[in-house]
Structure prediction request, 192 residues.
Amino acid sequence: MSDGSALQHDGLADGGFPSKSRTLKSVTVAAAGLIAATTLLAGCGEPKAAPMNDEYAGNSGETEKSQESESQSSSGSDSSSKRKSTTSDKKDTGNYKDGTYSINGQYGPVGEDSIDVHLTIADQKVEKVEIVGHPFTTISKNHQNDFAEAINGVVDGKPLKDLKVDKVAGASWTSDAFNKALEVARQEASIQ
Prediction:
């Protein structure tokens, strides 16, 4: 056996470079892998939100008993309803009851992070927001903490109707989950 045939056997052409067919095969396999990964992750990362008095509220980190007491202490919550979607079954009427509404917002590439949003509404405006984070990683924890510290300065005193935040404190996914929670809060607080 000569040295040239040994190199050819390894898929290398003369001079130690991969042959055209081997290079083409590698590029094709890499492209197929990229397409498959993109397809699998296409639906991931979409933030979701659900009222915390809901059996589908996600991994809020709170016990059912504490959620019940929170629901009973707020004048605007309906603790007896059961929902099967990530939004409320109520319609946003644009006219809101005063009260504190608790919503769990879930986000991340596979929904591994979540925040509990406790939103107090008075006279159609946001009076106070409390965020309880449930991070999966240290990076998520830092973003959630920064968001929780900054959010009241952004939304307090603002009308609830059509309220939406941009990236707050550098936390884009947390901000997206908060916006989904605002949608659910508007539905839950709406006077029907």
Q: What stands out?
A: Helices lie at 3-9, 20-41, 64-73, 138-155, 172-189.
